[in-house]
Structure formats: structure tokens, C-alpha cells
Amino acid sequence: MAFKDIFGFSFKKDKQESPQKENEFGGLEPPKSQPSFVTPEDYDGTYVIEGGGFFSQYYDFGGALIQENTQIQQYRSLALYPEVDRAIQDIVNDSIVFDDKYDCIKLDLDNIDTISDNIKTKIHQEFKTVKKLLDFSNKADDIFRRWYIDSKVFFHIIIDTNHPEKGIQQLRSIDPTMIQKVRKVEKEVKNVNHVNLALVKNVEEFYVYTDLDKDSVTPTTTTGIKISVDSICYVHSGIVDSGSKRVVGYLQKAVRPVNMLRQIEDAVVIYRISRAPERRVFYVDVGNLPKQKAEQYISSLMNKYRNKITYDSKTGEIKDERNHMSMLEDYWIPRRDGNRGTEISLLDGGQNLGQMDDVDYLLKKVYRSLNVPISRLETSTGFNMGRQGEITRDEVQFFKFIEKLRKRFSFLLLDLLKKQCLLKGILTQNDWNNLAQDIRFDWNKDSHFNELKENEIMREKVDMLNVMANYTNQFFSAKWVRKHVLKQTDEEINEMNQEIEEEQAKIMQQQILQQQMNPEGKDQSEQM
């Protein structure tokens, strides 16, 4: 695959950073860094190549590209299977929760103390802009579903090159089968302690975009477009094959069970159709007739007595034809015994055709491979509205799995927010690196398990307060109880105290007002 120019934009280094110096190999390196013999690997499915610094290169990674594209097409066909589609729908519905009152996701900057409130307000505003560019309020579930099935998602970031300070102007989704991330590593052999080592000289990352035919997984052209890293937003599933170092999807574990389920279902259907009808067996006494005469005699009997009504499996209609279905035909067998005459017996149909143990086993295995509770497979199973202790372990694991998916998918919003803030000059690269780890996302939750868990925790805290009531202000202070039993922070304690004082003052005012309006009410009640 050949290409020359690089397409897109790139962020420049911050002026606050110290200038880079040339290392002993002539390449640029950050200050105080040492050459390494280890090729950098982020386990993000990047195609690693070793090359020189030529203006035009030719890279042959067609085999890897075809393999990944075939894998993605396999995931997409797998998602069309009814049971798999139902499991995916459960995952998407629990991950992306729409609500009329709350957004499905919110930005949380409360853990960041290194920036001012004004900067936080700007970051919140840019986060709203990013969600608007993605049309997140309407297409969040569709984006999440495509990311979950394809194991990766790509967006092309379009900006105004004349005025980059305006930020991101448009986001365009890219088919994962048309783009590949590439890491070019330049090495140079250096003698270290009398040993020749290939040390990393320079590392360059970029994307290669190729146009593919809709009905093919192979490139239709050998020319690709080299795109800068900053112009593409790329988020993968986070699961990497340890052997090929390629990104695999969450559906990879379900490939074998689903294929086995298809085969066993086809086998069951074929067996039921072929064994369901009962057949008649005609033992015809042909006496001492020669073979040819005997066959003619049996054929004449078959044409005379056989049923000419047939069933058309395509249209579901009954037709009067001589083209009988072979599975419904009777058996005509000549008999030359002489002691026994013509006999008609019945060949029984298949027994135990209603057993589906194998199908049920593989179906449960498919759900296990997708981390979906098996209880959701049974439509007759009611929703448990009991306490937390009655919630199945599978539901707890499924809840944790959803949280893991949300955390991984949030890298999409985090990367877009980063580039939006850098383009608009709200933050520098160093500022972002310092606060990126403290940025949190609050996902809207619609899980019954989460509500029951919070209620159970609150109930346990209240019960513990009743137990410690006799020991408070003797062995434990009220502040200690509020911090260690109720798990309240200093801010929550101050806020709670203020609210309690306001409520008590309001109650006192109402009592005084009632006494002023009815000053004799108390005396009259005492006299009565």
C-alpha cells in the first residue's frame, strides 16, 4: 500500500515544554530520556512496522487488514442472530439509559482542584458541544451498539484549518473496515557493552484509510491516505489477542457457541421433518414371477393405490401431483416366500421429538459467553422486586460488566473533549495530562439492583445508629459517628447541619404563628 502525503491536523508542542534535543542517533527525544531496545506497544491493535524515513513508503499489511475485516464482518453477521441480538439489546439498554429529566452521561470535575471554576465552566460547555456534535441524546445507543459489535469505532474530526480556534466543526463516522492505525518504528543498531542492539530511534503513528468495495473485505486499490493521529478519534474494546496482538470484540467468545447452536438447530429441524411422518410398508407377494415381471407388477400397484395429494413446503399449499416428497413416500418391497401373502405394516415416526436439551444447553452457553444473566433468557421469569440479598449473582456480575463497558466507551468522549479544549486554547497539553486522570463521567443508571443496594446500605446505617445510640456522647462523639457510620464528609456534615437548623427554625415559626392566631385554644382545651 503506497501513500505520500499526510492528511489532517496535528497539535504542536506546548511552549512551556523544554525544547527537545537530538540524541546520539540524530533523532529528537524528550529531555532526560534514554534510548530503548523495546518497541512501544499500547495493545490497541496498531499495525507495527519498521521502516526508514522515506518520503514515500510501501507497506504490505493487506493480510492483517483482511483478517481484521473478516472478523468484523463475522461479528456483524453474528449480531443478526435473534438470541445474540436480544442479548446485545439488553447490554445496550443497561449501558445507555435515556431519561426525560437527566442526560445519559454527565461530566464530573469535582475531583479537580488545580483549575479555576471559570475553566471548569468552559470545559462543561465544551463537553455539551461534543455531545451535540455526536447527537448523543439521540444516537448514543446506536454509537454504543456499533462500538460493541465492531469492537472499535472511528470518527474523523473536521476543523476549520484557517481558524482552528473555533474547535471541532463536524464529526464523521468511519467504517472500521476502511481504516487502520499504523505505528512506524525506526531502529538503529548500536554497540552497547560490546553487544549490538537494535535501539528505537524514532516512533511515528498515523492512520491509513483505504476505500473498500461494499461486498468485499479486500482493498479495491493499493493507494491509501495517510492521516494524522490527531485528526482521528479511535476507541477500541480493550480486549487484545495475546498471540496476534489484534483487537477482538466482546462477541469473539460467542462465535463458536453460536455456530454450534445453528448446526444443532438445523439438525433438529431436519430430523423432525424426516422422522415425523409415519410410513406404510407394503410387502407384496410376487410368487414365482421373474424379476422384471415382479417389478412391473409392484409399479402397477404403486400407481394404483398411492396417494397423489402432495404438500408444497414453499407455499404451504396442498397440490394434486404425482411428484411425491420422498420423506412421505411409502415402501414397496417384493416378497417371494409363497407361504406369506401380501402384508401392509406401519413404520413408526420419530420418538421424543419434543426434547430440546442440546439446544437449551448451547443457548445458555451463548448467553454466558456474552456475560448476560441466563435468567433474562426465560421470558416467563418475573422481575424480582425483593431485597438485595435476593438478587442473583449473575445480575451483580452483569452490573459490574456494564460499568466496565461504560468506562471503556467513555474514552471516546474523553478524547474528543481533549481535542476540543486544545483547539480552543482552554487548556494546554501539559494541563490536560495533569487533570485527565481525575475526570469522571456520571452515567444515568436505571438498574433496579443499584437502587436496592443503596436502600440496603441506608437501612444498615440506620440500624447501626440505633445500636450506637446508647454509646454516643459517651464512647463515641456524634461527629465520629457521622463520619465513620454514615460516611458523611465535612461538606455534607456542614450542609446537613445548616438544613437541620433551617427546618427547626421554620417549625418554631409555625408554632409561634399558631399560638398568635389562637391564644385561647390551649386554655379552652385544658378546661374541657
In percent, how helical is the residue content?
A: 40-55%
* Total discrete domains: 3
SSE class: alpha+beta
Overall form: extended
Spans of at least 5 consecutive residues whose pLDDT stays below 50 are: 15-32, 323-327, 385-389
Largest sheet report: 5 strands, mixed
Average pLDDT, rounded to a whole number, is 77
Radius of gyration: 37 Å
Approximately how much beta-strand content do the residues carry?
15-25%
How far the N terminus sits from the C terminus, by CA atoms, comes to: 103 Å
Count of alpha and pi helical runs: 13
* Overall number of strands: 21
Describe the structure.
By secondary structure, this protein is α+β, with helices and mostly antiparallel strands. It has three domains: 2-248 and 396-446, no CATH class; 279-347, no CATH class; 455-527, no CATH class. The protein has helices at 62-79, 82-95, 117-134, 136-150, 255-275, 291-305, 357-369, 393-423, 429-435, 448-468, 478-484, 490-517, 521-527; strands at residues 2-3, 6-7, 21-22, 28-29, 47-50, 57-58, 105-108, 152-159, 168-174, 179-192, 195-209, 225-228, 232-236, 239-240, 247-248, 279-285, 309-311, 318-320, 331-335, 343-347, 440-443. It is 41% helix and 19% strand. The protein has a five-stranded mixed β-sheet with strand order 2-12-11-10-5, with no helix packed on it. Strands 9-8-13 form a three-stranded antiparallel β-sheet. It has a three-stranded mixed β-sheet with strand order 19-16-20, with helices on one face.
